[in-house]
Amino acid sequence: MVSTVLLSTAYLAPVEYYVQMCNHPRAIIEAHCNYVKQTYRNRCVIASAGGRQTLSIPIVKPDSLKCPTKDIRIAEHGNWRHVHWNAIVSAYNSTPFFEFYEADFRPFYEKPAGFLFDFNEALRELICSLLDISPAVSYSTEYVFSPPPDVLDLREVIHPKKLPFIRDFRPYYQVFETKYGFQSNLSIIDLLFNLGPEAAFWLTK
Fold first, then answer.
1. Which residues, in sequence order, are CB contacts of 25 under 8 Å at separation 6+?
2. What is the structure's pLDDT at 1?
3. What is the DSSP letter of 56?
4. Where is pLDDT greater, at 166 or 198?
5. Beta bridge partner(s), residue 47
6. What's residue 155's pLDDT?
7. From the CB of residue 194, how many other CB atoms can be counted at a distance below 10 Å?
8. Three-state SS for 51?
């Protein structure tokens, strides 16, 4: 029986990421993989008034082509924190639960951040707390080349350029659904701001 899921770090990860966190008692976050561009490591997708919108965190270019994700630093150019927070507010301020959670998320966008991995994990810990889920999370001490049979390896499966690992998402209320239809597998904040405390129940189903 698969009891553990192996995941990459992710910025405001998509819903399918938290389905796995919610339905496995243990999770391992890969800390020693080489950083790869255009993944959920530094980007998320939200539902804006204009449709799906990707928010990407700029990074400091590493000195070498191969750099562990845990050593990637966040760049402060482009005023990204202001841009991201304004986009989140614009997209979700009319959702049923945005005001309920706003004070939890705002501080992440009010001061410079250091390492991408640490920033992502601090957000993940907050989200798990808000969802009231508590998988036993650990971090790899070296790159995991061959996970054992009881570990589900989704490090490169949950990816913005691949089809969701979960193909059949149950629809839930979304503010812009009448305009765009139900948009599946957005950032977890879409589920949280729209469903509030019911989000965890949705994840288990």
1. 3, 4, 135, 136
2. 66
3. E
4. 198
5. 52
6. 94
7. 22
8. strand
**Nearest CA to 193 among 47, 56, 21?**
47
How far is Cα of residue 19 from the mean position of the Cα atoms in its chain?
A: 11
Residue 177 in contact with residue 155, Cβ under 8 Å? no
**Gap between the Cα atoms of 204 and 133, Å rounded:** 10
Token representation of residue 183: 């948009």
Rg for the chain, CA atoms, rounded? 16
Q: Over range 22-49, report the average pLDDT.
A: 95
- Decide if 38 contacts 182 (C-beta within 8 A): no
Assign residue 132 a region (left: φ > 0; alpha: ψ between -120 and 50; beta: otherwise): left
| C-beta atoms surrounding 69 within 10 Å | 23
Q: Which pair of structure tokens corresponds to residue 104?
A: 């939890």
Q: At 87, is the secondary structure helix, strand, or coil?
A: helix
- What lies within 8 Å, CB to CB, of 122 at 6+ separation is 108
Which tokens sit at 32?
């020693």
Distance CA 134, CA 154 (A): 19
pLDDT one-digit tens code per residue, 49-80: 999 999 999 999 887 778 999 999 999 888 99
For residue range 92-137, list pLDDT tens digits in order. 999 999 999 999 999 999 999 999 999 999 999 999 999 999 999 9
For the chain, the 3-state helix, strand and coil shares in percent, each to the nearest 5, are: 40, 20, 45
Q: How far apart are CA 165 and CA 184, in angstroms?
A: 12
